[in-house]
Predict the 3D structure of the following.
Amino acid sequence: MLLNKENLERIKDKKITFVKGFTSPTTEYDFNTISKLTDDYSLVVNNKPMDLMSPFKSIWQMKNIHMDKTYFFTFMDFFYKTFKYVPDIKDGVDLFFSFVTNVGASHVDTEDVFLISLHGISTYRIIETSQDYKLESGDLLFIPKGVRHKAISTTPRIIASVGYYGGRS
């Protein structure tokens, strides 16, 4: 996991931060991996329907994956310790994935979010500035709570979303 001094300071100052090549995933994350995780750990997968007639156009979510898969707990622990987050019961790592290209709704998160691309290409648009960030496998985007944004998947994609609801100590 690579963060240089400038990245560290920007995140500490709660500024949107993009890090190219933050990590090299230890596993090839694809939809077979998603299926295996779901089966091995009996995980619940939710979908956010974009088109009720075609569920594959939905955005899918696997919540709290860090509780079952150590790889994701490592990210959570790294950010906790590096940025001194106060633990909150709602903190966690969720996987978001989509099987086809789509555009998510513009939204504001109530937590600080570290987005790590595991598969495919996604663009995150910051609404206020119309700034786009293109994430490929291993890239990181930090979006502080309260910043309106939306995800645009230009390919099928898998994103790990590490969220912290508490403040920092």
In short: The longest helix spans residues 70-83.
